[in-house]
């Protein structure tokens, strides 16, 4: 919370941001000690609908009460988003164990909610307007800030859902290369797993309308960080140039900032509510939403929510390609033409020839890497199934939704059936 006198300098703030993003020596984040032992975390969001009428939302108090009563065998963390989206976050686990855990917990949640008439929909953007059902000082201030800029903020908060993949930075000497590799891979992940082709009344012209919304949200907040210079310094410069979303006056009062104010400007010039502290700075980092965000590990945030059959595939592909050094070298040339093409990925998916060719290279390299990493058969099998279903045919899940719409006229997919657990 702000102080009446200047508390931070720009130099100290840069160090705080860089350490927050890339410090890997904390006991809770040990470096991996053997191939395949690096930890992987998976976060999965779904939209919630009534199973008897998927066009209608579920009252939030009922959703929360029922969801929190469902035992999750893998102890994933259960949270909710402003539009009533429900999210499961696995613990970071080695050897692709997060895939087994998240599938087990997703099966329990899906089955338990379905028994009460609540369905889960795995799609990146749910067409049609949704009200905000989750109220908090943070979300009130966030909505007010975004409302001053346009409609994208409300759409993002209420109608989008994603799969997030969390990967280790690796030992300290690997952090810069892991940062570079993740940014090279990011546009491809967006294209391969694009799954939101609709807006309010029909096709939007995008394969991932969700990513298009996020990219349009606010340039200094949701644009990619970039890889020029050192990873820590790039992240620090991004964070300090980013707009301040809100100022926390107390635990219960968040004041939206609706006039341009970067965090660097706040440090130098202050604000009528006071000067920022280090705690304000670390909170500011939680309001930044680039496609790849460092937090002592890397969050890959560009992937649309997916049907239950496929939601572990992005994590498997990402971990295989980033953890296996041979695979990283093999895919570098094919990924080079995709550099910075986030909008192309969101619009075209694998209809773009460069993305289609790179996807085939990456899935082949990942399959070989999984063998070297000692992955279980079920892990390699699901990657191969996705390759056959989509990559080999130059398709992504958005193409399935478009074909279904042409037949049925439905913009909202039917709710999920529970994913099969993995032994």
Number of strands: 9
Give the strand content: 5-15%
What's the number of helices? 17
Overall geometry comes to globular
Given as residue ranges, the uncertain stretches (5+ residues, pLDDT < 50) are 25-36
Q: Mean pLDDT, as a whole number? A: 93
Rg over alpha carbons: 21 Å
Main sheet specs: 7 strands, antiparallel
Order of helices and strands: HEHEEHEHHEHHHHEEHHEEHHHHHH
Structural class: alpha+beta
Helix content range of the residues, please? Answer: 40-55%
Gap between N and C termini, in Å? 47 Å
Q: Can you lay out the helices and strands and say which pair or pack?
A:
Elements: H1 10-22, E1 40-50, H2 60-68, E2 77-80, E3 86-89, H3 97-114, E4 118-121, H4 137-147, H5 152-159, E5 162-168, H6 175-192, H7 209-215, H8 219-222, H9 231-241, E6 246-250, E7 253-256, H10 263-269, H11 278-285, E8 292-294, E9 297-304, H12 313-323, H13 325-335, H14 342-348, H15 353-373, H16 377-389, H17 397-408
Antiparallel strand pairs: 1-3, 1-4, 1-5, 2-3, 5-9, 6-7, 8-9
Helix pairs in contact: 1-9, 1-11, 4-5, 6-14, 7-14, 12-13, 12-15, 13-15, 15-16
């Amino acid at each position: 919370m702000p102080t009446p006198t200047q508390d931070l300098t720009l130099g100290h703030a840069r160090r705080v941001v860089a350490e927050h993003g890339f410090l890997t020596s904390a006991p809770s984040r040990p470096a991996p000690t053997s191939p395949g032992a690096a930890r992987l975390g998976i976060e999965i969001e779904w939209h919630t609908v009534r199973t008897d009428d998927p066009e209608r939302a579920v009252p939030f108090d009922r959703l929360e009460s029922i969801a929190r009563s469902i035992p999750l065998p893998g102890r994933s963390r259960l949270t909710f988003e402003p539009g009533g989206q429900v999210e499961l976050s696995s613990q970071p686990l080695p050897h692709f164990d997060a895939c087994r855990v998240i599938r087990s917990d997703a099966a329990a949640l899906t089955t338990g909610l379905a028994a009460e008439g609540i369905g889960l929909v795995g799609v990146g953007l749910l067409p049609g307007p949704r009200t905000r059902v989750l109220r908090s000082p943070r979300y009130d201030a966030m909505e007010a800030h975004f409302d001053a800029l346009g409609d994208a903020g409300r759409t993002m908060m209420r109608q989008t859902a994603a799969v997030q993949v969390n990967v280790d930075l690796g030992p300290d000497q690997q952090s810069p290369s892991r940062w570079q590799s993740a940014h090279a891979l990011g546009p491809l992940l967006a294209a391969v797993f694009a799954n939101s082709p609709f807006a309010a009344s029909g096709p939007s012209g995008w394969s991932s309308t969700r990513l298009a919304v996020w990219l349009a949200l606010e340039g200094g907040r949701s644009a990619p960080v970039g890889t020029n210079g050192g990873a820590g310094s790039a992240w620090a410069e991004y964070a300090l140039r980013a707009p301040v979303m809100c100022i926390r006056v107390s635990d219960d009062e968040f004041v939206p900032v609706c006039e341009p104010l970067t965090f660097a400007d706040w440090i130098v010039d202050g604000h009528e509510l006071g000067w920022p502290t280090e705690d304000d700075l670390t909170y500011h980092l939680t309001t930044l939403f680039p496609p790849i965000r460092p937090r002592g590990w890397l969050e890959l945030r560009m992937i649309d929510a997916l049907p239950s059959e496929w939601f572990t595939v992005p994590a498997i592909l990402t971990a295989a390609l980033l953890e296996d050094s041979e695979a990283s070298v093999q895919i570098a040339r094919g990924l080079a033409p995709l550099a910075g093409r986030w909008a192309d990925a969101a619009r075209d998916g694998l209809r773009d020839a460069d993305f289609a060719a790179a996807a085939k290279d990456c899935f082949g390299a990942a399959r070989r890497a999984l063998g070297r990493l000692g992955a279980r058969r079920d892990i390699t099998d699901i990657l191969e199934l996705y390759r056959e279903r989509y990559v080999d045919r130059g398709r992504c899940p958005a193409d399935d939704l478009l074909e279904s719409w042409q037949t049925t006229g439905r913009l909202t997919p039917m709710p999920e059936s529970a994913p099969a657990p993995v032994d």
